[in-house]
TrEMBL record:
PANTHER family: BLL3975 PROTEIN. This is Succinylglutamate desuccinylase/Aspartoacylase catalytic domain-containing protein. Residues 44-231 form the Succinylglutamate desuccinylase/Aspartoacylase catalytic domain. It comes from Pseudooceanicola batsensis (strain ATCC BAA-863 / DSM 15984 / KCTC 12145 / HTCC2597) (Oceanicola batsensis). InterPro entries: AstE_AspA_cat, N-alpha-Ac-DABA-like, N-alpha-Ac-DABA_deacetylase. GO terms for molecular function: hydrolase activity, acting on carbon-nitrogen (but not peptide) bonds, in linear amides; hydrolase activity, acting on ester bonds; metal ion binding. The keyword Metal-binding applies. Keywords: Hydrolase, Metal-binding, Zinc. Its cofactor is Zn(2+).
Amino acid sequence: MNDIEIGTARTGGAGRVTGWLDLAHYPDGSSMRAPVVIVTGAKAGPTVWLHACVHGNEYCGTQIIHTLLRSLDPDGMAGRVVALPALNITAFNAGIRMSPFEKYNGGDMNRNFPGDPGGSLTQQMAAAVYPHLKNHADYLVDFHTAHTHDVHWALYAALDGKVGETGERMAKAFGYRDTLATPPGMLTGSAMMTAAGDGIPALIVEAGGKGPAFLRKNVEDAAERLRNVLRALEILDGEVDDHGPIANFSGFDWVHAPRGGLFRPSVACGDAISAGQVIGEYFDIYGAPSGTAKSPRDGTVLAIHPGPVMTNGETLVHIGHDPRKD
């Protein structure tokens, strides 16, 4: 395979190399650098690009990528894996979703691809990453994490033709039942949809929970599912496991909390819910029940606020619409 260079990570035949990719600069002038790992196989093949922590405190994805990388043997690979396990490095180090240095504009990196070298900090960081992704990746898998340990769902870019067909094949190989076939015009500015628009089949995985909701078993499970994706893409040898049909959604909603208070959810990820169903209960500061949260529509719970407290406007629940088995 041809050698590649991403920041200071430079390949030289089969094997593993590490390095740093400069994204921007701190106030003291030092570099904001994201770590890069490249594993090149002994045989020619496609390149899969993996990244995690586009949202800095979603650490489960970092651990999934590390677990996958530790298992790879270049002699048994056909192709290459490029991994940025802590992409939004300043948010990663601060333990928050978006960069603490983002001052003026929306700091959600997953709405700012392909970036803008003359834009905000987050736009400039995205612009430092995306040309490498576009130039080198044949496939993209982007890892995210939500509130609770039982979050297990995925999204693929459902564009017409080979990009969408291959994205669905990747989703089926990963094998989470709850999956959103993401149409054009949805999640604009995400790495997934931007890459798909450039002809790169792309998958987002939402796996596991943040903070105390982190579970090692979720990491091990997702890393093995990722290996299955690499088998489906013929980067690794072996039979592709069949995880059964996926439940493709027609769309999904982020439902924001209309009020604050102490909160106790009454549904879990993967549950089917109906419009008007109680999905949680509020309590006042004295511990007395003070109201209920209800679902605005039918669907499947993709993520639910874990409590124990929330303020107005926080994400209450993610709901997948109209699941169909494919």
